Amino acid sequence: MNDRNAAKRDRPEIFGSTVEDIVASIRALIDDGGLQPGDSLPPMRSLADTLGVNRNTASAAYKALVQAGLAETRGRAGTFIVDPYESYEEEGFARDTVLHDVGDGNPDPSLLPNPTRFQLAPAPPRLYGETTIDPELAEWATEWLAADQPRPFRLTVAAGAVDAIERLLAQTLTPGDSLAVEDPCFLTSISTIRQAGYRAVPVAMDEAGMLPGSLRDALEAGVRAVICTPRAHNPTGASLTAERARELREVLAAYPQVLVIEDDHFSLLATAPYVTIVGEGQLRWALVRSMSKALGPDMRIALVASDTETAERLASRLSGGITWVSHLIQRLTFAMLSDAETQQLVRSAREYYAAQNASFIAKLQGVGLTSLSRDGLSVWVDVLGDSAEVLVQLMRRGWIARDGRSFGLQGEGDHFLRLTVHDLSDDEMTKLAADVGAAIAAVPATTHSVTA
């Protein structure tokens, strides 16, 4: 700890008797340069004693700063100020590494259709002010979405699921507003929330999805939107059951004005059936389905079904100007989706990913480890202790993976790793499972979970 930080602990610069006042005081120090990225905050116990408040109050203030992206906790080292506009972890390959990367979260390139083989029919140029949705894609998408979501809806086309969700949130929330999200959650969701200045309210989950009681707590806390992954949740691989979806609908029934967004990102490849948390009385809702996992990450397109008001607000951000999705991409998407060879490739990919995950989970069981992942591109593995320590040991054995804490909003995931294994051979999966077990064994016992 440098002298500058030590001096900051002793100066009575932070003040307040409530969570809101303490947070406002620290934010003011950040704004005027009194606190800068890398500076440490006083220990929570010390701050509570200095301000004469309950330690839970100091703890809640620090948690609010972390959720706002203004601070981060580093275990016993303490809580530190961070730059809210710095780059966040993203999906993709680890650059400049000789290690075997099982943390990239990418689909298998051999299971993606080749877009260059499609010959599009001649069509007139599209101009400003014209319709933003290609008619053939609209017809296909409406039929596909209506098969799962029988409620009346309007269709919108966005430049991928991230674009759709960012726009949906922007037409409902303002900086400082709160929304409920699964904890752990998708890396891009964390980035979106923090960069937009929203306040994430974590909702705990299990292998069947969001826990109803935790969602109820978030709604009672005043969230204005909910983001839920109905199946193939990233990173855990959880999918909602029909019973869990019914329970969540019952919770949401008392909050019809809350915007409910279902991020069904794995829809074309999921083995679990789609079930919805959108009840009959929900006034604001949207179902977002991305094409990137099945057709390729470069196919920047997502189909959105939503209520009329939400669709009109969303369309106002996509029409007439420079932000609509290219009709060339839309026409290519329709050509791929309606192609028999592509449809067979998607079916093969669905079966392959599920089989690879199941095979690896069986190998994990052989070394005494478990995973509840059943769907998606990756496997969420409980490493029974400090994931960062296990990750270091795993790297020494030639592997690089995703630390579960990267996906956590409130400390969730700190004893998990996310492993993308679908491109591994059977022998490689056997070795990885054995190496994960050996990495766990190499971590000092004091870092292992007491419930392991």
Automatic annotation (TrEMBL):
Residues 16-84 form the HTH gntR-type domain. Keywords: Aminotransferase, DNA-binding, Pyridoxal phosphate, Transcription, Transcription regulation, Transferase. The keyword Transferase applies. GO terms for molecular function: transaminase activity. Pfam families: Aminotran_1_2 (PF00155), GntR (PF00392). In the C-terminal section; belongs to the class-I pyridoxal-phosphate-dependent aminotransferase family. This is Aminotransferase class I/II-fold pyridoxal phosphate-dependent enzyme. The lineage of its organism: Bacteria, Bacillati, Actinomycetota, Actinomycetes, Micrococcales.
